[in-house]
TrEMBL record:
Protein name (Swiss-Prot/TrEMBL): Glycosyltransferase
GO MF annotation, one: protein O-acetylglucosaminyltransferase activity
Organism classification: Eukaryota, Metazoa, Chordata, Craniata, Vertebrata
Localization terms from the record: Membrane
Organism, as annotated: Crenuchus spilurus
InterPro entries registered for this protein in UniProt: Glyco_transf_61_cat, Glycosyltransferase_61
Family: Belongs to the glycosyltransferase 61 family.
Amino acid sequence: RQFASFLMERLNISKEQRSEDDDYIVVFSRASNRLILNEAELLLSLAQEFKMRTVTVSLDEQPFDSIVRVISGASMLVSMHGAQLITSLFLPRGAAVIELFPYAVNPEQYTPYKTLASLPGMDLQYVAWRNIIEENSVAYPDRPWDQGGIAHLEKEEQERIITSNDVPRHLCCRNPEWLYRIYQDTIVDIPSFLEVLREGLKVKPNLKKSKPASTVHPGRVR
């Protein structure tokens, strides 16, 4: 949190001035891969479920400082798994991080943002949603290997990857099966998404009541 404040200061960003009833949800929009194919429907369902307005931010279309400014006043951040979720460190205390995972990608194996949200003093709620409906995903086997393409692999290996429904544990970050799955586009199944949120969010994201936790001092380095 000290680092986030320091960075905001250096970027000349003041905290969002919030009116009492202006809670809003931010959805990270991606332009070229890992798309949420029914983004408009997702935004509408979030607005209806939480009675908040929804806004999108995009690293492709907006400067970093304006994205940080928006996120620093949000009640909830929703995004596909990806490096852009590091911006959750700018969320105010009491906010929620909702991480979406494509088909066959197990949230239990990819937890940097869950870890970030649960660090002492962050005071963020975290929920992971996973697409379990294969028809709701679009993969791109013919793309370059570093964007999830698998055309360079032996036919047998391609077939094994395509028919698998769970990426096995692997080392970061060149594993072809991992890349193939993580670069899928996803149709978010709204009923299961809302059910996961209702179960996972212990309280409705509330920025007004959350007080900073006591200071945490790191242990001695060994």
